[in-house]
Amino acid sequence: MKGTIVTTIIRYPHPEITEDLSELRRQNPLTQCITNVVVTGFTANVLLAVGASPAMVIGVEEAAEFARIANALLINVGTVSGVESRAMLDAAQSAHEHATPWTLDPVAVGALRFRTKLVEELLNFEPTVIKGNASEILALSGREGGAKGTESIFGSEEAAPYAKELAVKTGSVVVVTGATDYISDGDTVIGIPGGDAIMTKVTGTGCSLGALIASLTAVAPNPLRASTAACALYAAAGERAALESKGPGSFAVNFLDQLTSITTSLS
Amino acid sequence: MKGTIVTTIIRYPHPEITEDLSELRRQNPLTQCITNVVVTGFTANVLLAVGASPAMVIGVEEAAEFARIANALLINVGTVSGVESRAMLDAAQSAHEHATPWTLDPVAVGALRFRTKLVEELLNFEPTVIKGNASEILALSGREGGAKGTESIFGSEEAAPYAKELAVKTGSVVVVTGATDYISDGDTVIGIPGGDAIMTKVTGTGCSLGALIASLTAVAPNPLRASTAACALYAAAGERAALESKGPGSFAVNFLDQLTSITTSLS
Amino acid sequence: MKGTIVTTIIRYPHPEITEDLSELRRQNPLTQCITNVVVTGFTANVLLAVGASPAMVIGVEEAAEFARIANALLINVGTVSGVESRAMLDAAQSAHEHATPWTLDPVAVGALRFRTKLVEELLNFEPTVIKGNASEILALSGREGGAKGTESIFGSEEAAPYAKELAVKTGSVVVVTGATDYISDGDTVIGIPGGDAIMTKVTGTGCSLGALIASLTAVAPNPLRASTAACALYAAAGERAALESKGPGSFAVNFLDQLTSITTSLS
Predict the structure, then answer these.
(1) Which of B124, C11, C55, C228 could form a disulfide with A149 if both were Cys (CB 3.0 to 4.6 A apart)?
(2) What is the rounded CA–CA span in Å between residue C246 and residue C259?
(3) What are residue A265's phi and psi, to 5 degrees?
(4) Calpha distance B56→B46 (Å, rounded)
């Protein structure tokens, strides 16, 4: 693995984050999500909780048409199969052609051949942001990712240098999630500590972060700030929700409440 | 837009609503739901909470067969794609042929071509109830619906006259949801105030209302009463749940609890 | 129906159950779930709550490849349609060939022709465990199951003798769920009382039990013990969660919390 890199640590509250989250609630961006079937409901609830407008338009007959009119697009390959992969490619191409910012969550890339090939094709349409765990970012960097299903066996700090390198290579902002999230535009590397370990025990926390990043790319000045605001909000809401929760069931409930509570008390 | 129309305001509690909700719990109607992937779990939980029996039989190989034996059917086109649209058409045709009452929720009709054409075809099978937001009802009436994704930019009061007109034209009971819900059989127009704005921040509240209406069409004397009981129960449960909730996460939990609490304390 | 059979009653806490649940948390088995769209999120949350690692790899392009590397597999036919049935058959065949233990939940078998035929084909790949309600187990035994959608109209005690017989015939461990769950390997019959009636009013409680059984087959000494540990944990967590819940919404939250609370306090 590579050595350490210079990182700027950012935490909520922070003036730029406050500004971007306020804009999110004000502009209510229409965010198309083509995501996995496990997390659709939770993802929609996260977007509604922060003031964005989710639209799960996933059919191959409609995906590209909608990617043209949406304010942002998320593609998450978590449970992808044949015809859905076609919808993803069409939507990504449409987003690329019509300058709709789009975020790619390459779940378990490197672990299975079909989705690895699909992710390679999706990268041709130049995602605005790529968000993954350490395994996924390492796999995209051509290293052995060491995935166990959808979970990473490496820490995010090990993948941070590769995130920066991948950002240079692709032109995308790259987010690697973990105990500390790292975000790079190929130049700066930002570290977002915080959150709580219980977040790894509730399905959809990682996947919905991708949707939140996508929403913010529609309103923030640049995708580095969009990603930073999303990760910092998640870290803060996760910490607060964990304090008042008895387990993963109550955490999921409190987390949604905290997302609304934090973002409605801004400014 | 059209002028105002004469409306009868109904609120829970009300003798006919109590009667219909009691029948729902007593008869436990088997309600087939072909709905969108975002809200399947929440919809099933809503039906179970009020004493109905949900059955998400969605495969094209089974949809029509099941629509014959089910007590009611819901079709919601929220995340429809190719083969699923075939299952919807087959199920609607089967329901029509076998006198199974069925409810249509034409999510985002008018905003995307594929589903707009699909909804037109579905209307040939004469839904018992059509339920939509103002944008959707306006689009079905041939007006510019002004949708933003799945959300309406018009209020329900603006769509109420068109709901009545659409009911006359189709023979369906038409429900337009909003701050006040309006229900028309082409003759009467009923208004159901209540609920809480937080309901628009929890995914599935609107879609599960369609499933609840469908369930009630299996037991109520007529679809106007079925729709009225469903909307009035939602308004009451939404108000009560909002009072005890800190945000959208706890609201969803409390809403399900209230649906059970209200419907088990009847009579 | 048949007469009564000799049954050993087991309740949590119990040394073998404690041992198996501790192993589950220690080994964190990667559990592939090809399940119905209604319960994917809840099922993933249940597995995470007890320390297993869910992976919803469902595409026909990936299902068999993943069934080779997964520690266990669940197949639940609840909302199956065409291409998904192909993925199920491929995954079951792969699990069979590579000695991955797998659990079959034949939802509504006997009630609809397509899935009934599919389940027959799946049985050729010799599931480690078959889990169903009384109607489903009776249908698999060639009797009239008396299903109403996904619900059984017979009690589990009526199906217990047939469960034993089916275990002898198939070589699978057979679990029949109900007020008391019965588990048989064709020799012993174990009865697990407990739980709470509210569990039938929350979608996914039954389906996620199948996933929990699957996870435990990866770590327990034999599938009889795996099934016993799963049912006993569910009964205990259900009882405790019911005590602190106001309705089905809060029950689902408290149930997840209890699953974590019980399994982290072991040993």
Answers:
(1) C55
(2) 18
(3) -95, 5
(4) 13
Q: Are C205 and C199 in contact (CB under 8 A)?
A: yes
Q: What is the pLDDT of residue B144?
A: 77
- pLDDT < 50 positions in chain C: none
Asked whether the beta carbons of residue C258 and residue A248 sit closer than 8 angstroms, the reply is no
Cα C43 from Cα A248, distance rounded (Å): 13
Specify which residues A55 forms β-bridges with.
A32
Distance, in Å, from the CA atom of B75 to the CA atom of A107, rounded to the nearest integer, reads 31
Coil vs helix vs strand at C266: coil
Contact assessment for residue A25 and residue A50, using Cβ atoms and an 8 Å cutoff = yes
pTM equals 0.97
Strand runs labelled E in A101-194:
102-105, 129-133, 147-148, 151-152, 173-177, 181-184, 189-192
Angle between the N-to-C axes of helices A248-264 and B248-264, in degrees from 0 to 180, rounded to the nearest 10: 120
- The Cα A238–Cα A255 span in angstroms is 6
CB distance A112–C62 less than 8 Å? yes
Q: Mean of the per-residue pLDDT values for chain C?
A: 95
Residue B146's pLDDT is 67
pLDDT of residue B41: 98
Domains and CATH numbers, chain B: 8-264 (3.40.1190.20)
Task: Name chain C contacts of B70, Cβ cutoff 8 Å.
Answer: 149
In angstroms, how far is CA C5 from the centroid of its own chain?
22
Q: Is C256 on the interface with B (CB under 8 A)?
A: no
Q: Kindly determine whether residue A59 and residue B78, on different chains, have CB atoms separated by under 8 Å.
A: no
Nearest to A134 by CA among A114, A92, A106: A106
Alpha-carbon span C97 to C252, nearest angstrom: 37
Q: Are A70 and A104 in contact (CB under 8 A)?
A: no
| CA nearest to C32 within chain A | A149
The verdict on B250 touching A (C-beta cutoff 8 Å) is yes
Query: Is the Cβ pair A44, B203 closer than 8 Å?
Result: yes
The β-bridge partners of A132 are A176
At residue C30, the pLDDT reads 98
Q: Which chains touch A (3 or more CB pairs under 8 A)?
A: B, C
Using an 8 Å Cβ cutoff, are B67 and B58 in contact? no
Question: How many CA atoms lie within 13 Å of C225's alpha carbon, on the beta-carbon side?
Answer: 15
pLDDT by residue for chain B (267 residues), tens only, comes to 576 788 999 999 999 999 999 999 999 999 999 999 999 999 999 999 999 999 999 999 999 999 999 999 999 999 999 899 999 999 999 999 999 999 999 999 999 999 999 999 999 999 999 999 999 999 999 987 666 766 777 899 999 999 999 999 999 999 999 999 999 999 999 999 999 999 999 999 999 999 999 999 999 999 999 999 999 999 999 999 999 999 999 999 999 999 999 999 986
Contact C109, C132 (CB under 8 A): yes
What pLDDT is stored for residue B3 in this prediction? 67
Nearest CB to C202: which of B30, B37, B48? B48
Cα A126 to the center of its chain, rounded Å: 15
Residues A191-222: tens digit of each pLDDT? 999 999 999 999 999 999 999 999 999 999 99
Among the partner-chain residues C81, C151, C253, the one whose CB lies closest to the CB of B58 is: C81
